[in-house]
Design brief:
Length: about 425
């Protein structure tokens, strides 16, 4: 019988198996690659796949270092007079900056989309945005029975925590409002132009409660900032402008009537006069001394640490009037540099918002950038007597550990959005 040429020869079988395995591996490769490409798009708690925006990171660090340096220069005299330790303010500000930087680092790698991720709680769907806003409203409500005053005007808008000291809950509320509005507009983006959605009950209910909390604390700057943040985010979100303008006028009118009927003199006193010379011995004393500090700085300034107004002439210079001391020491040129740094921050922040991956990220970056820019604008305007003294601090510069820590955490969220933005 004639045998097949391959009879008894088993050598080709391993070769065929090898070819089959190789072919199967090649067929599987595109599937595995596709899975790897889809992985970064999943909502995760932490995301280490993308690169952070380097220009924004550098701007933040420059503002932070310059700000802490100027806070120390402006406040060491008052620190020694009030506490017997010229390093008192810097000793409290540096740990807060450290905690803020740690939080900024962690939040940079936090997937910001997790804030809008919905969870089932019984028959309801909730997000971290809902939880954060509810918690911050509750925290602000505690100011009414348990609040303490850190200023001479006696307004109880701080809470005291054993060991850690006092903090202002309204600082947390600003961030919670930004996150919640970003989620709400993102969730209802397809019908946001409808009046009942864009300016209706769901959004207005939470915002109205937030306003009541802040107004009840006689916190003028907080009221203005939260109101303008909400207005800008709703505008960017695409609401119908005509009914929005009507609602804004109605809301402002109702607020003014409520303030007038309540007998609160705090708000009216803030708008009493923009002239630093109007009442030097009382209501405009601080504005007058700030104007002297800015005028005496000239073009180039007196040099770092050589301010004279910070030696008990300009009260609490380390808080709302750091900019005045900065201009006195570094002159007009130094003031322009600080303004330019904030302008660069605003432009880069809005660029991150414009090129963000989704609408939630766009609105989150817009709200954070606008808040920091608005506070800087209002503070500088107060220092030059362009607007009434609202008590707003200069981000990264003014003394306040809690405020600085929260601002750096916000920067972490902004950098988290930048990681998924289509930046060059």
């Amino acid at each position: 019988m004639q045998q097949s040429p391959n009879h008894g020869n088993t050598a080709p079988k391993p070769r065929n198996n090898t070819v089959n395995r190789a072919g199967e591996a090649v067929r599987r490769a595109p599937v595995q690659t596709a899975k790897k490409q889809k992985d970064p798009n999943r909502v995760q708690f932490f995301n280490f796949n993308s690169k952070v925006d380097v220009p924004m990171t550098l701007i933040i660090l420059v503002l932070l270092v310059f700000g802490i340096t100027m806070m120390f220069s402006a406040g060491h005299a008052w620190a020694y007079r009030k506490n017997g330790d010229a390093l008192y303010y810097i000793k409290h500000q540096l740990p807060a900056a450290g905690l803020g930087l740690v939080g900024m680092f962690l939040l940079t790698f936090f997937d910001y989309r997790f804030l809008r991720h919905e969870f089932s709680v019984g028959k309801h769907r909730v997000t971290l945005a809902h939880i954060l806003l509810g918690a911050m409203l509750l925290l602000n409500a505690l100011c009414f029975p348990f609040g303490v005053s850190n200023t001479e005007d006696g307004q109880k808008r701080w809470l005291r925590v054993p060991v850690f000291g006092t903090f202002q809950p309204s600082d947390f509320l600003k961030v919670a409002v930004i996150i919640f509005l970003a989620y709400y507009i993102h969730k209802n983006s397809d019908k946001i132009r409808l009046f009942w959605v864009g300016m209706g009950k769901p959004a207005l209910l939470f915002l109205a409660v937030a306003f009541i909390m802040v107004v009840g604390q006689s916190h003028l700057s907080g009221t203005v900032i939260i109101f303008l943040i909400a207005a800008v985010m709703l505008f960017v979100g695409g609401i119908n402008i005509k009914p929005a303008i009507f609602m804004i006028i109605l809301g402002v009118g109702a607020l003014l009537i409520a303030i007038q009927l309540s007998g609160f003199s705090y708000f009216k006193d803030r708008f009493a006069s923009l002239d630093p010379l109007a009442d030097i011995g009382d209501t405009t004393y601080q504005n007058y001394e700030a104007a002297l500090a800015i005028a005496s700085g000239g073009i180039w300034g007196k040099g770092f640490g050589n301010s004279s107004q910070k030696f008990y002439y300009l009260p609490e210079a380390q808080n709302d009037f750091v900019f005045a001391i900065l201009v006195e020491e570094f002159g007009l040129i130094g003031g322009i540099v600080v303004v330019m740094l904030f302008l660069i921050f605003i432009l880069r922040g809005f660029q991150i918002a414009r090129l963000s991956e989704d609408k939630f990220g766009c609105l989150l970056a817009t709200g954070i950038t606008f808040q920091i820019g608005l506070q800087a604008l209002l503070n500088i305007a107060v220092n030059v007597s362009a607007v009434p003294n609202t008590g707003v601090s200069l981000p990264f510069f003014s003394y306040g550990g809690t405020a600085l820590m929260i601002q750096l955490w916000e920067m972490g969220l902004l950098l988290s959005v930048s990681k998924r933005a289509r930046l060059k």
